[in-house]
C-alpha cells in the first residue's frame, strides 16, 4: 500500500480526536451547572447510543442538523425522567457545542503518528461534523497544521458515505482514488463509503468489533507506522 499511496484522509471524531472523553467532560460542566443531581456517567451511558443513532439518521438525511441537536438531548432526559423545557434544551445544546472544543484529548499515539506520516504523505481530513466546531477542535488540539485540506459535509453538500463528499475531498486535495486511502472508525460512513467510491480504507477499530476479513483494520493508531 505505502508504495502507491500519496494521500491519507482521516476522519476526525472517534479516530484522532477522542470524542467520547471530550464529550463527557463537556457534559460534566453542563450538568454541574443545571442538573447537579444527574451523574455524568449515568447521563453519558444513555446519551452515547442515542447520539449514535441520531448521527446515522443525520448521515442519511432523515433528520436535520437542528433536529439532531434537539432529539439526542430530549430523548436522553426523557429516559432519565428529568423534566426539561425546549428552551432549556436549546441552551444546553448551544453550550455543549461551545464547550466541546475546550477539551482536546486525542487518541493515544495520534501526534506521534501524524509526525511520522507528515513528511511522507499529504494528510487530509474528511468529516461529517459541523464546520465551525471541527475547526475549533483541530485548532485547540494543535493538529490543524498537519493537514493540507479539510473537507466537511457542510461545504461538500453531502455526508459520508455519499460519494459526493469523497469526490469533493479528492478534488480539493488534487488527489486520485488509486493513490488515496481513508482511515476512520465508522464502517458505514468511512469504510464502506470509501470502498464503494473506489478508495482503499483502513478501519480504526479500538473496540475490536467483528468485521469481515477483507477489511483492513487497526486496533491502535501506532499500527499505522508499520503500514506506512
Automatic annotation (TrEMBL):
GO molecular function, one term: 5'-nucleotidase activity
Coiled coil spans: 63-90
Transmembrane segments: none
UniProt keywords, alphabetically: Coiled coil, Hydrolase
SUPFAM superfamilies, per the entry: HAD-like
InterPro entries xref list: HAD-like_sf, HAD-SF_hydro_IA, HAD-SF_hydro_IA_YjjG/PynA, HAD_sf, PGP-like_dom2, Pyrimidine_5'-ntase_YjjG
PANTHER family: PTHR47478, PYRIMIDINE 5'-NUCLEOTIDASE YJJG (PTHR47478:SF1)
NCBIfam families: HAD-SF-IA-v1 (TIGR01549), YjjG_YfnB (TIGR02254)
Protein name: Putative hydrolase of the HAD superfamily
Organism: Flavobacterium swingsii
Lineage of the organism: Bacteria, Pseudomonadati, Bacteroidota, Flavobacteriia, Flavobacteriales
Amino acid at each position: 500500500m505505502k508504495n502507491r499511496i500519496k494521500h491519507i484522509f482521516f476522519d476526525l471524531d472517534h479516530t484522532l480526536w477522542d470524542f467520547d472523553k471530550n464529550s463527557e467532560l463537556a457534559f460534566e460542566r453542563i450538568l454541574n451547572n443545571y442538573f447537579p443531581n444527574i451523574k455524568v456517567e449515568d447521563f453519558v451511558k444513555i446519551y452515547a447510543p442515542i447520539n449514535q443513532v441520531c448521527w446515522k439518521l443525520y448521515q442519511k438525511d432523515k433528520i436535520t442538523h437542528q433536529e439532531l441537536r434537539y432529539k439526542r438531548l430530549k430523548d436522553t432526559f426523557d429516559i432519565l425522567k428529568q423534566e426539561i423545557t425546549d428552551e432549556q434544551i436549546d441552551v444546553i445544546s448551544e453550550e455543549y457545542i461551545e464547550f466541546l472544543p475546550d477539551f482536546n484529548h486525542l487518541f493515544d499515539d495520534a501526534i506521534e503518528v501524524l509526525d511520522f506520516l507528515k513528511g511522507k504523505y499529504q494528510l487530509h481530513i474528511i468529516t461529517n461534523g459541523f464546520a465551525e466546531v471541527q475547526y475549533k477542535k483541530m485548532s485547540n488540539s494543535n493538529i490543524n497544521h498537519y493537514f493540507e485540506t479539510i473537507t466537511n459535509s457542510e461545504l461538500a453538500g453531502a455526508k459520508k458515505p455519499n460519494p459526493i463528499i469523497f469526490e469533493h475531498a479528492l478534488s480539493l486535495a488534487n488527489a486520485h482514488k488509486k493513490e488515496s486511502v481513508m482511515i476512520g472508525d465508522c464502517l458505514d460512513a468511512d469504510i464502506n463509503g470509501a470502498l464503494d467510491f473506489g478508495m482503499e480504507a483502513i478501519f480504526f477499530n479500538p473496540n475490536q468489533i467483528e468485521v469481515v476479513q477483507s477489511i483492513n483494520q487497526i486496533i491502535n493508531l501506532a499500527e499505522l507506522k508499520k503500514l506506512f
